[in-house]
From TrEMBL:
Pfam families: DUF2001. This is Phage tail tube protein. Gene3D superfamilies: Phage tail tube protein. SUPFAM superfamilies: Phage tail proteins (SSF69279). It comes from Zhenhengia yiwuensis. It comes from the Bacteria.
């Protein structure tokens, strides 16, 4: 892109998240990222480290206002029985001023922990839940 206008910068206020088809209005932030796994490659007559990509790791985080016990209900029984709960997450960012929108499916998301209680007096409740995943698809991407 050679040029853009300030109003075309995507604003996270227009972000939305669905977990296994359930719309999560309480979400305030979402991140999903893919990090490359690299292995050092030793080479003669070269002092600098060389590296080869040998895989990747997928992780993310979800921040939301504490409105319900959604995650306790979703994960509690499986965790107590030693089962893994894998979810599908859809992230959508569709700012009406932006050039396009982004919609991404996160597959096989597994949440790292279950927060049973976390509160403080005179503090609004918030949850941040980290997860890993193994695959993703791009449904819509901005131009």
């Amino acid at each position: 892109m050679d040029k853009y206008n300030a109003q075309q910068v995507m604003n996270g206020t227009w972000g939305e998240v669905w977990i296994d088809g359930t719309y999560m209005a309480e979400v305030t932030a979402f991140e999903a990222k893919v990090s490359l796994d690299k292995t050092d490659v030793n080479m003669t007559r070269r002092l600098a480290k060389a590296q080869k990509v040998t895989g990747f790791s997928c992780s993310g985080s979800l921040t939301m206002n504490k409105v319900s016990s959604f995650f306790i209900k979703k994960l509690n029984e499986d965790m107590k029985q030693g089962k893994q709960t894998a979810c599908t997450i859809i992230s959508k960012l569709d700012d009406p001023d932006a050039i396009g929108s982004e919609r991404i499916v996160i597959k096989d998301a597994v949440f790292d922990e279950l927060i049973l209680a976390n509160w403080s007096a005179k503090t609004l409740g918030e949850e941040q839940i980290n997860f890993t995943f193994s695959d993703w698809d791009l449904l819509d991407i901005a131009e």
